[in-house]
């Protein structure tokens, strides 16, 4: 008869494999739920929005680097 000691697990390879399968299943669900967005990158509204976002980001970085009281 073979006996397992208290520090041996019966199947060490089962836990990581089942965990990976669950993660793969969740990834597929997320991909299916994502909606494809078609943005016209040449539109003037898109260019204005991009410039506004970039300007705010630059100001944020400047404040982060040089905090003034």
Automatic annotation (TrEMBL):
- Residues of the region (Disordered) are 1-69
Q: Which family does it belong to?
A: Belongs to the PCP4 family.
Protein's UniProt keywords contain 4Fe-4S: no
Task: Name the PANTHER family for this protein.
Answer: IG-LIKE DOMAIN-CONTAINING PROTEIN (PTHR15359), PURKINJE CELL PROTEIN 4-LIKE PROTEIN 1 (PTHR15359:SF5)
Signal peptide from the UniProt entry: none
| Superkingdom of this protein's organism | Eukaryota
| Keywords in alphabetical order | Receptor
The name this protein goes by in its record: Free fatty acid receptor 3-like
Where are stretches of biased composition, namely Basic residues?
Answer: 56-69
Does the UniProt entry include the keyword Ribosomal protein? no
**Where do Basic and acidic residues bias regions lie?**
18-31
Q: Where is the composition biased (Polar residues)?
A: 1-16
- Organism, by scientific name, is Platysternon megacephalum
Q: Which InterPro entries match?
A: Calmodulin_Regulator_PCP4-like
